[in-house]
Amino acid sequence: MEKILSPEERVKRAEEIYYRRRENNQNIRVASSHVNSGQEKREWSLYRKMILQILICVVIYFVFYVVKNNHYIFSQDVVNQTQAFLQTDINFEQVTEQLGNFWNENQQHFQFLNTWFNKQDENKDGAKNEEQQNNTQQNNVEHNNQENTTNNANQNNAIENDTNEQSNNTETSNNTAKMNNQENTQANQAVGMGGASDEKTAVATSADESSQKTQMELDAEYIKKNFSMQLPVKGTITSHYGKRQATEIVSANHQGIDIGVVVGTTVVASMEGKVSVVSGEGEYGTHVKIVNKDVTTIYAHCSKILVKKGETVKKGQKIALSGNTGKTTGPHLHFEIRRNERTVDPELILKWN
């Protein structure tokens, strides 16, 4: 059977193994006295604990002995007074009444306590109110930001709606003007209607026509009367002026006309003037602007510009080659006419066969 080792023997064997391994690692012989030194220290520690416990027991015995044989701490007088106090009946109602009278008589002496407690409560209330105000201000700021965001979105929608309404109004005005022109023409044919003379009828009709024409029609008449213009390039109009179906490339409100031509087709100046812009940037791509007094013509999406900025060109002069640059859906020339930055439908001025 395997021998059961006592705790002391286990400790001794562990120390022997430790020092043996240490000797093998360092090649140093360890004296046998070193092996037993740990056991001796442990035995001395046990002796100290035992001596300390004996001293504590002696002190406790001494204290009990002094208490038992000394009547000063628990004298007969102390014992008698304690018994008398325990046998006394206490009237709690009377004690409560006496405490209330004492408080009422000396309340002014404790006034500072009430003041101090009130200040503490006020400080707490003030801190709570300040925190509530800060939370309220923060909520108001967030609410205002949300309202501003909503208002901006509504304003953008309103601007888009206004633009659409203006386009619709423009078309309606054009249709109304055409109908009025037809009616006025019929009225002019009826000479001397109502007893009026021919001259008076003509003046009245002219005044009515002027009052019913749109700004674009007035601008078109001004340009036709004061400037000589021609087609910049011959081709089919693929997109007319005005409102159209919008896409990622195509704008909702077309400010000119698109003439379908192949890349490299010669583009001529529609009217004489001075080159104000030659650029290859933006949605127009490579484009050129020609200005004559208060009228501007624009030729966009070109592949090459043949004139320079500041150069004076004549009507019919070669100024560019058509292309497919900028924001386009295919090769074409975007042609635009403006008077004082107001766009004018080129089809009101020029004629296409």
How would you describe what is shown here?
This protein is α+β, with helices and mostly antiparallel strands and 353 residues long. Among the domains are: 63 residues; 133 residues, Glucose Permease (Domain IIA), CATH 2.70.70. The chain is 54% helix and 16% strand. It has 7 helices and 12 strands. Strands 1, 4, 5, 6, 7, 8, 9, 10, 11 and 12 form a 10-stranded antiparallel beta sheet that branches. A two-stranded antiparallel sheet has the order 2-3. Strand 6 and strand 7 form a beta hairpin. Helix 1 runs antiparallel to helix 2 and helix 5 runs antiparallel to helix 6. It starts with 6 loop residues before the first helix and ends in a 9-residue tail after the last strand. The relative contact order is 0.06.
Helix content: 40-55%
CATH class of the domain at 216-348: Mainly Beta
Number of strands: 12
The CATH topology of the domain at 216-348 turns out to be: Glucose Permease (Domain IIA)
Beta-strand share of residues: 15-25%
Class of secondary structure makeup: alpha+beta
Report the biggest beta sheet as strand number plus sense, adding barrel if it closes.
Answer: 10 strands, antiparallel
Parts with pLDDT < 50 across at least 5 consecutive residues: 185-204
Tell me the Rg in angstroms. 56 Å
CATH superfamily of the domain at 216-348: Glucose Permease (Domain IIA)
